[in-house]
Amino acid sequence: TWTTEAFVEESIREIRAKVGEKRVLLALSGGVDSSTLAFLLHKAIGDRVTCMFIDQGFMRKYEPEQLVKLFAEKFHINVEYINARDRFLEKLDGITDPEEKRRRIGHEFIQVFEEESRRLGPFDYLAQGTLYPDVIESADTNVDPKTGERVAVKIKSHHNVGGLPKDLRFKLVEPLRKLFKDEVRKVGRAIGLPEEIVRRHPFPGPGLAIRIVGEVTAERLNILRDADLIVRQEIKRHDIYHDFWQAFAVLLPVRSVGVMGDRRTYAYPIVLRFISSEDGMTADWSRVPYDLLELISNRIVNEVDGVNRVVYDITSKPPGTIEWE
Ligand code: XMP
């Protein structure tokens, strides 16, 4: 029978046997898969795994700092923080189409990954958080047609893109490839991954960039980060974080009139999107207490400059999607 402990021991043995004294690169996103992978590799080979964390500038407020602190300072895992905020923002200049945004972010991710892996390398292996459903879906994308060996032809990032140049075709280490998502969570927990990461809400790879409808600017990112932080603070304070599949804020690129004190305002609205779901494929909008909505609305309008209105999304999926882009 499958036990988490046996899996962890067996994986560590396999990783050591495979990697030997060589070096391994891992792209860390902060999600449960890549974090569990990082912990497992660190347990198996210590400092010979390098976790590359690329900060695109689209994560939630304080999350990049907290993640690096947690991994590097608390768990002594070898993390390379790459601040790429400016170049990602530049790539989105004037872009409003959702799929074009994703394409550009994914493309830039590969650019940065390539540059940084050359700078930090050489590495022999790439650790990937491939799960069982990924193996099934994309059967042979990473098999070398000549040797039949599994190599990194494409990198599985949270953007699901990425042809790698020929000289960067690492050999793969994929210790999670027989696991389903719930098993990854168990493994993560068993090897000491903090509960806040194990049970974190799903967060899209392009992050806040697709929660700003239309053009992404530094100003809009700041506004959304602050509004989003208030949402998280309040649902955690009320101890209902785990009642949702996801709960987040969206910024709309329109402005409406409001009044504050004796001043007329003309500012952005924030949409609250609170969802319950089993798997993200279908979803229902959450029936949140009015008092909580009022509290969040008041805090956002009073504390976040540039917002003068908060609305609640009551659309289920289908026909709506969870994200607005
Ligand atoms: P939708 O909006 O399609 O979202 O109902 C379903 C789930 O997928 C997440 N999502 C993404 N995740 N990259 C990701 O890694 C993306 O581009 C992306 N778009 C949506 C979304 O947060 C939800 O959990």
Q: Keywords for this structure?
A:
single chain, 325 residues, alpha/beta, Rossmann fold, GMP Synthetase, Chain A, domain 3, five-stranded parallel sheet, five-stranded mixed sheet, 10 strands, 17% strand, globular, binds xanthosine-5'-monophosphate
What does it look like?
With 325 residues, this protein is an alpha/beta fold. It folds into 2 domains: 4-198, 3-Layer(aba) Sandwich (Rossmann fold); 211-312, GMP Synthetase, Chain A, domain 3, CATH 3.30.300.10. 39% of the residues lie in helices and 17% in strands. It contains 10 helices and 10 strands. The strands form 2 sheets. The protein has a 5-stranded parallel beta sheet with strand order 3-2-1-4-5, with helices on both faces. Strands 6, 7, 8, 9 and 10 form a 5-stranded mixed beta sheet that branches. Strand 8 (263-276) and strand 9 form a beta hairpin. Helix 9 packs antiparallel against helix 10. The protein starts with a helix and ends in a 13-residue tail after the last strand. The mean pLDDT is 93. The structure holds xanthosine-5'-monophosphate. Xanthosine-5'-monophosphate binds at residues 102, 158, 202, 204-206, 246, 280, 317, 321-323.
